Amino acid sequence: MGPVTPLGKDATGYMSLIRRVQLEWSCNRSELPNSVIVKIPFTAAVHDALDKSSGTSSSQEDMNLLQKVFHSVESRFYRIVEEEKQKPLLVPTIYANEDSDADQPVIVMQDYQSCYVVDLVQGFSEKQLFAIVDQIVKLQAFAMKNKKCVAFQQPPEMNQLMSTFTAQCKLICLNLMGSEPVRLSCIKIFMANTFDRDSDWMTKMVNEYESGERPSVLTHGDLWAANILWWDNSSIGGMVDWQAAHRGSPVIVLYTVAAKYLARPRFWSTEFLAFPSPIMKASLGILL
């Protein structure tokens, strides 16, 4: 084993400690990786972020439980994908995968050292947007075909955290409105349709997706610019950080990713709106 180095200023993610490990081999085989990424559950960053954004202090017990749940979800998702003979999605190759119950929970994965992330402010180009939608649709098709994905449920420990999540979400909304009452006045609409109607709306919605009462597919759960790695300006290398994978709406993730393009005419073009259908049919083996 060679040097172990951080990935830079973002080496400590919200839910994990991330390190690059250089590998030294006694043989010269092209299929062996020169380096891997080691991801270890670690909640210090998310603990601090939640406390600052909500104005409250999260209990260490809740943080430990959250760490266990999120690592378990990501570990389980990667294991499902790795069982496929042909990888159905652009996700990293996994070399070692120890779940939350192991003595040392860890995921050792492919190092996308040559890839880059798109600046969040700059946003995605149209080519990149179409490439992302391609992967979202393929994920949904895979989730409908794979029996383990169909049966994918949140760990039972998540039920213990829902009331905490709901309370913190409300506090974050209130703090945001207080800091930018004019620019973020749209949050009032969200609050009126959620917390003002039913204080337990989040738990009920999650349960409806999990039980099948609402139509759902397996979704990434945290698909933003930092979790999509690019080889070039139109080719995705991999989509990472599946800790928040869960059953959710088949369409909301499409609108979330494309939100920056709502004002652009081509977003609503026939070409874009029709784009997912043939991909879904082909992925499901339906004749066009």
UniProtKB/TrEMBL annotation:
Residue span(s) of domain CHK kinase-like = 107-286
**InterPro entries listed in its UniProt record:** CHK_kinase-like, Dhs-27, Kinase-like_dom_sf, Oxido-Kinase-like_Enzymes
One Pfam family in the UniProt entry: DUF1679
Query: Taxonomically, which superkingdom?
Result: Eukaryota
Highest lineage ranks of the organism? Eukaryota, Metazoa, Ecdysozoa, Nematoda, Chromadorea
Question: Can you name this protein?
Answer: CHK kinase-like domain-containing protein
